[in-house]
What we know:
Strand order of the largest sheet: 1-7-6-2-5-3-4
CATH architecture: 3-Layer(aba) Sandwich
CATH class: Alpha Beta
Helix content: 40-55%
Number of helices: 9
Shape: globular
Oligomer: single chain
Number of domains: 1
Number of strands: 7
Distance between the termini: 26 Å
Radius of gyration: 17 Å
Largest sheet: 7 strands, mixed
Amino acid sequence: MDDLTRPFARPAVTASMVIRTSGAYAALGAGLLVGAGAGLLGRSRATGMNTTMSVALPAFLAAADIGLDVHGEENLWHRRPAIFLINHQSELDLIVLARLVRRDMTGVVKRELRTNPVAAALGWLGEFAFVDRASTSDAIHALEPVVDALRHGKSLGIAAEGHRSDSPMPGPFKVGAFHMAIQAQVPIVPVVIRNTGELLPPGARFVAPGTVQVAVLGPVGPDGWDPSTVHEHAKALRDAFVATLADWPTGLSR
């Protein structure tokens, strides 16, 4: 457990990291343009987002020299639409998740990211909900279109804690995803990310090369769930994330 609570160390910056990171963001930008073009031609933001997920995100990861090692990948496809719930360590998390989900996904991100050109472009294509974390009423209103999207076949990617952790230990899980699962009657698929915080920790500007390890657990809920017990479900799922991180699955497959 000590290893989980140790803060992420910022990797030493090398010239190759600077070059790779610059190339990765250039590839992401080019892929976004391709996606936007596909969306305009098809008159569909969903088409644009799916194109971006299939073109831009693999290009970003390849340019940054980041591989994926995934356990339980079959659980990504077991039931859709679904809410893909991740622990949040790094700005890489949503990119990794979208790369795994591959298509038909929207997201929930903090409102401050509207000023980030990449997040803003992805948010427009994917019809993300930009949420003011300081205002519960604004957040509930912003999430209404997301629940509707879930009901109409689009999956959701969301960070369980709502903010990045400074160590591998997940923070307390917020209950918004659990309420949405009940409202839309879709399952939650837990996606446990082990080490993005080592490759791009909070505050770092350059991405270190490496392999992101991911464990996709089996879907849970919403059968038998009730709004009055969402805190219990959130705690139980956080316990599952902590247990997975503390005893990482063996036999990971690429």
